Amino acid sequence: MRKVIALMLVFGIAHFTGAFDLMAQDPTAGGESGGFQMLKEKFIEGDWKFMSFVLVCLILGLAFCIERIITLNIATANTDKLLSSIDDQLKSGNINGAMEVAKSTPGPTAAILYEGLRSAGKGPEAVEKAIVSYGSVQMGLLEKGLVWISLFIAIAPMLGFMGTVIGMIQAFDTIEQVGDISPAVVAGGIKVALLTTVFGLIVAIILQIFYNYIVSKIDGIVNKMEDASISLVDIMSSNNVFK
To answer: Rounded to an integer, what distance in angstroms lies between the CA atom of residue 110 and that of residue 112?
Structure first.
């Protein structure tokens, strides 16, 4: 995870910094599409040295989002197929085989089923207790990193608003120095203020979309875990595992 974040951070900053230097020399250079080139131009106009902090929030936030999405996709198992395989093993009285099936299947659902099967000899209450206890552990693993994504969602617009305040201060400083309140004098500071706010909000919106997708993905996995846990107890009871 740390390597992914570091690579994305270095690549993102290097790409944008190199692009900014190129545009400073020749605004028409680069060959990018008009939309992306305009985005970079506005980024520079909003004081890119300050707005780089917003860019860092975006890169780090996306790194955590990508890591979570990949992990959750790997954790999504075919629950029906898994339960069917466990049922087949238990019908033949091979509880060790059922445990091996659960152990060899990746994902939190298989992990809690494995813990339940391990406690089969202690009765149904012990199985349910093991499933509930280990389910809490798996929930914590599924939600790992979400707090950082939430942090970047909150920080990005705050940095944008800070840029707004700084831009307004610059505008009033210019008015004080020039002694004139004409639009041409204050336009630069106000432009910086508005651009930083816009970019901060854009970053927050992007990360919020990913965050909601990840949360919905986790909710789906948790529902499958709960359904599979109930089904496991029923399967064990129907196969006379509890004696």
So the answer is: 6
CA 75 to chain centre: 15
**Which pTM was predicted?**
0.74
Q: With DSSP H G I counted as helix, E B as strand and the rest as coil, what are the percentages for the chain, rounded to 5?
A: 85, 0, 15
From first CA to last CA, the distance across the chain in angstroms is 45
Residue 19 confidence class, pLDDT cut points 50, 70, 90:
very low
Residue ranges per structural domain of the chain: 2-74+151-221, 78-142+223-238
Angle at 46 between CA 40 and CA 47, to 5 degrees: 100
- Residue (of 143, 135, 125, 136) closest to 228 by Cα position: 135
Distance CA 110, CA 212 (A): 25
What mean pLDDT is reported for the chain? 78
